[in-house]
Amino acid sequence: MRKLALATAFMLAVGVGMPTATAAGGQFTYILQANGPVSSASFFDGMNEMRTITDLPASWSQTFANQATYQMHSISAQTDGTQISCQVIVNGSVADQQATTGRYTVVTCSA
């Protein structure tokens, strides 16, 4: 959990997930795939509110409607396993995808 908090703080400090000019409307989806349970995930929702959820299954996704003028698309997640990947899909197109390996590894995707 501490690694995820540090990763989230790093995301915000270096501007990862800074808003991009998008017309209000459309949608975006976060997808996580891991080889074990996902202990926690932090992400921006459709209103640019930072959300953190815990105890997710190894395969998880969530779709939001863009409700902000300058929408942020960013997710950071940590697995209890050794592999995790993420995708950010904006209006049907893959905007970012990343994968990491290692014990309790953390992955971050943003667009």
Summarize the structure.
The chain is mainly beta. The protein is built from 1 helix and 10 strands.
Structure description:
By secondary structure, this protein is mostly beta strands. It is built from one helix and ten strands, in the order αββββββββββ. The strands form three sheets. A four-stranded antiparallel sheet has the order 5-2-8-9, with no helix packed on it. The chain has a four-stranded antiparallel sheet with strand order 4-3-7-10, covered by helices on one side.
Mean pLDDT: 86
Q: How large is the share of residues in beta strands?
A: over 45%
Q: Please compute the radius of gyration using only Cα atoms.
A: 13 Å
Domain count, please report it. 1
| CATH topology descriptor | Immunoglobulin-like
List the helices and strands and how they pair.
Blueprint: H1 2-13, E1 20-21, E2 27-34, E3 38-44, E4 50-56, E5 59-65, E6 70-71, E7 74-79, E8 83-90, E9 93-101, E10 106-110
Antiparallel strand pairs: 1-6, 2-5, 2-8, 3-4, 3-7, 7-10, 8-9
List keywords for this structure.
111 residues; 55% strand; four-stranded antiparallel beta sheet; single chain; mainly beta; Immunoglobulin-like; elongated
